[in-house]
Amino acid sequence: MDKGEASERADKKNEQVAMQRARERARTGRWDLNIAIFLFAVLIIVIILLFQEISLEVVSTVAVVGLGLVWLCGWWQGRQLYQSFLEEELTKLEYERAREVGEVVEEAVQKALLQRWH
Description:
Blueprint (H helix, E strand, L loop, with lengths): L2 H27 L3 H19 L4 H62 L1
């Protein structure tokens, strides 16, 4: 196995780690205050419809559509968060990789300078 293959494997592994981190962060941020307020609005509408003695078919349809919209909004927001977090994690990995390469180059230069002085 040459250095290129090992580097590719490391890059893929790092990318998978970045994707996992982004997925976890997006999962925690999926349900925010706006979605909770929307969910309570659906609940209030359902309660009002029930007190107005609207037929159960209409109330259940409103409830199902409302819950579907809540799920859809949460999924959409999670997807957006995942994309932004993934870009952030990949940028961090690129920065770390560039810093490591810079440190290796700096060490090589220092070794070369020490060899010339001795």
